[in-house]
Design brief:
Number of helices: 9
Number of strands: 10
Strand order of the largest sheet: 1-2-3-4-5-6-7-10
Structural class: alpha/beta
CATH superfamily of one domain: Divalent-metal-dependent TIM barrel enzymes
Shape: globular
CATH class of one domain: Alpha Beta
Radius of gyration: 18 Å
Strand content: 15-25%
Oligomer: single chain
Helix content: 25-40%
Largest sheet: 8 strands, parallel, barrel
Order of helices and strands: EHEHHEHEHEHEHEEEHEH
Length: 280
């Protein structure tokens, strides 16, 4: 495994200080959402090859891999103008991904509401078809530039189950579409006790399309799922890595929503799952 972190989960700081912080913590990779980490212009058209290279080169000099370029947009926004703006923004990131030294631009799939919240209104055919339509458009752009669209599914979105992810992959038949796998994203208070069945189904249906994994954990409080430090919650990491470790050499595992004070302990926990067979 190559353990990394979402850059915006660290303190906001200048670029070179951010890279030094990541290296100091023993992390080897990063999911980078530039507008969440730096005070740079956010309007469409402001991203340039020069800016992308400047940012990417700071990470390359210290051998930190920019695994995912995060572009957090609602690709099925209910306002047509907002939706078109979101897709255009994502395409801009696709065009500049290689200047960052990155091959994957990632996002969640959006929501039928302007705000990303849990609602069963997402769990219908119309939102799923809207997701498929938008992702097909993004993948066509990704194919032109030789990069990958990374989709992170979960219960807050129309891709709320392993089966809906499979439908997307069957509908958009392209190797330029891969999955950012966050196991906790599939869990609710109603199904967490069946996590093994859910993950087994995901591996069987599209395990070969997992490009990156997010690592977080959960506990149950007052009848709902709450965040917990990785390794101290109810997520069965042993089950996950028994499948992933031998099949996904050097898988990029990105800590997600981690508390800074917990990083060292979380790293110790995660390193337990590194495969014991010889690696390159």
């Amino acid at each position: 495994m190559n353990i990394g972190i979402r850059a915006h989960d660290l303190e906001t700081q200048p670029l070179d200080d951010l890279v030094a912080d990541i290296v100091r913590r023993g992390l080897g990779s990063v999911q980078l959402a530039p507008n969440k980490s730096f005070d740079i212009p956010a309007q469409l058209g402001s991203l340039t090859p020069g800016l992308a290279y400047r940012i990417g080169n700071a990470f390359r000099r210290h051998n930190v891999q920019v695994v995912v370029l995060g572009c957090y947009v609602n690709i099925i926004h209910p306002d047509p103008d907002e939706k078109r703006q979101a897709l255009a923004r994502f395409k801009e990131y696709l065009r500049h991904a290689r200047d960052f030294g990155c091959g994957i631009v990632g996002t969640e799939t959006g929501n039928v509401n302007a705000e990303i919240v849990y609602t069963t209104d997402n769990f219908h055919e119309e939102p799923l078809q809207a997701v498929i339509e938008s992702i097909r458009e993004l993948v066509e752009e990704a194919e032109r530039f030789g990069v990958v669209v990374g989709i992170e599914p979960g219960v807050n979105h129309p891709l709320y189950s392993p089966q809906t992810v499979k439908r997307l992959l069957d509908s958009v038949d392209s190797s330029n579409l891969q999955i950012i796998f966050d196991p906790v994203n599939f869990l609710t208070i109603d199904n967490y006790s069946r996590q093994w069945d859910i993950f087994r189904e995901a591996f069987e249906l599209w395990g070969d399309r997992i490009a990156v994994m997010h690592a977080k954990d959960f506990c149950v409080e007052d009848g709902t799922l709450r965040p917990a430090p990785v390794g101290k919650g109810l997520l069965d990491y042993t089950f996950l890595f028994d499948w992933l470790a031998p099949r996904k050499p050097h898988l990029n595992v990105l800590l997600d929503e981690v508390e800074l004070a917990d990083i060292e302990e979380v790293m110790t926990f995660m390193n337990r799952f590194k495969p014991d067979f010889p690696m390159i």
